[in-house]
Each structure stands twice: as C-alpha cells, then as structure tokens.
Specification:
The protein has about 240 residues and is α/β, with parallel strands linked by helices. It contains 7 helices and 11 strands. The chain has a 6-stranded mixed beta sheet. A 5-stranded mixed beta sheet has the order 5-6-7-9-8. The protein is globular and about 55 Å long. It starts with a strand and ends with a strand.
Length: about 240
C-alpha cells in the first residue's frame, strides 16, 4: 500500500483543467491508496464552509466518495484556504490536521507542514499570516456576509499576486525557505524528514543538521501539471502527473 501527499492545487472554477485532473486522481490513484494527505492550498480561495459555489461542491462530493470508500483523507490549512472548518470536514469526510503534524510512515517519523512558516525572509507575509490565523480574526471573517467575504477574498488574492510579482522581480530568494528556519524546525520536532509545499519548487533536499543527515521533500503545485509524493514501505517517489 502507498500513502499519497499533494499540496498547492489552488482549485478554482477558472481552471477546470486542474479540477478535472484532481477528480481523476481521486477516482484512480487515490482510491487505491492507504491514505491521502493534502498539505494546504487545496483551493485557490475558501471563503467559508457555507460557500454554495458548484465547483467547490463537486470537489467536496468527490472527496466524500473517496473517504466513504474507506480511504482516509487528511487536510491541512494553507494560506489560501485557512477558513476550512468543521462543516467542510463533515461534508467531505476528511480530517483537518495541524500545520506541524508528525506521522509514522512505515516506521519513520515524518513532519508534515504547509511550508509557509519556513519562509521567514518575507516578513510582510509572516505578519499577514499571523493576522489571518488569529482565532478572533477568523471568527470575525466567518461572521461576515457571503458577499462581503467574496469581495475580501478578491482583494486578498489581488494583493497576494502583486506581492509575489514584486518579490519575484526584486528578490526571488525571499519566496523560498530560510535554511536556518528549516534547521530549527528539524530540531524542534526531533525528526530527520519533513514534507511540505507552498514554495511551488518540487525537489528532494538532502542536508545535514547538527551532524545528522536529514531530508526535506517539497511538493509541487498543480498549475501546469500535477505533483504527488508516493510513500510505501519500500521508499518514496516524488513525481509529476501529466495533464491531458
């Protein structure tokens, strides 16, 4: 059996090709898996569990079909879908897990993160993250009207795009992880392997932390093709999923 890891799909009605690939992935590969982990930014924007958007409802129904068949699915908040809540879990049959969860993968302790907490060279983003992850702020957001949340989400997406574009031109390295933050995270959790997304730079990094070998696996985004990490008792493989 294989455990699957994906992140940064950014599902949105404007990109039906990504949604179709994800639905096919659920029907085929994920249906045969031991478990599926989604490490943040499943959706481009999630404005609340009461959003009636038909594209989102179709995705939630497909996830319910997967979990109803007996395949557990674990979802982590990302920076785009931090308002995923209890109703989403009930409707999809999924379970929310904390950003910074350690799991046992066939005898190896592995840390799961979205990845944005490692990008400490971008203080403006880190300030925004602290604000939107504040429980009081999230309470206020959830109690806005649906129309108000839709407008706010549009403004936040535009602001995020402008920030990313500016950083890509001025200092692209800021958008990647800080190596000291990576080492500190390994020490904090006492593991030698972590899996995360967020940076959209898929790779397997081998490094040394305090004289010990460690592995950092970065999941890719789904903008141009799919990205999946397959982990079984014989090892792991980070692979792309071609889109038709």
């Amino acid at each position: 059996m294989t455990t699957l890891f994906i992140s940064d799909l950014h599902l949105d009605g404007s990109r039906p090709d990504i949604t179709d690939q994800f639905l096919s992935f659920l029907d085929r590969e994920a249906a045969q898996a031991e478990a599926l982990y989604i490490l943040g930014d499943l959706f481009e924007a999630w404005i609340g569990d009461d959003d009636p958007d038909p594209d989102k409802r179709r995705i939630v129904a497909a996830m319910k079909k997967l979990t109803g068949s007996g395949v557990p699915c674990f979802v982590m908040h990302g920076n785009r879908d931090f308002l995923l809540g209890k109703r989403f879990c009930a409707d999809s049959g999924t379970r929310l897990i904390d950003d910074g969860t350690v799991v046992d993968l066939y005898g190896r302790r592995v840390l799961l993160l979205h990845g944005d907490t490692l990008c400490t060279d971008d203080p403006a983003y880190q300030r925004l993250r602290r604000i939107v992850r504040n429980p009081f702020v999230q309470f206020v957001l959830r109690n806005l009207t649906l129309r108000q949340r839709q407008r706010l989400a549009g403004k936040m997406r535009a602001g995020s795009k402008a920030h990313i574009d500016a950083m890509d031109k001025a200092a692209p390295s800021i958008m990647d992880v800080n190596h000291d933050a990576v080492a500190a995270t390994f020490r904090c959790f006492g593991v030698d392997c972590m899996i995360h997304g967020h940076t959209h730079r898929p790779a397997v990094h081998r490094l040394t932390v305090d004289g010990h070998e460690a592995t950092r696996i970065v999941l890719g985004d789904w903008y141009e093709q799919g990205s999946v990490l397959r982990w079984s008792s014989t090892g792991f493989e980070l692979a792309g999923l071609a889109r038709r």
